[in-house]
Amino acid sequence: MKPTQALHDLGQSLWLDNITRDILDNGTLRRYVDELSVTGLTSNPTIFDEAIGGGATYDAAIQKKAGAGLSGEELFIEIALEDLRRAADIFRPIYDRTDGNDGWVSMEVSPLLAGDTKATIASALKIHKQADRPNLYVKIPGTPEGVPAIEEAIFSGVPVNVTLLFSREHYLAVADAYMRGLERRKAAGLDLRVNSVASVFVSRWDRAVADKAPEDLRNKLGIAICLRTYKAHCDLIASKRWKDLEAAGARKQRMLWASTGVKDPKAPADLYVAAFAAPETVDTMPEKTLLAFAEKGTVKGVIPKDGGDAEEVLKRFEKAGIDVKALADKLQVDGAASFVKSWTELMQRIADKSKALAKS
Question: Which of the following is catalytic: 65, 139, 252, 353?
Answer without folding.
Answer: 139
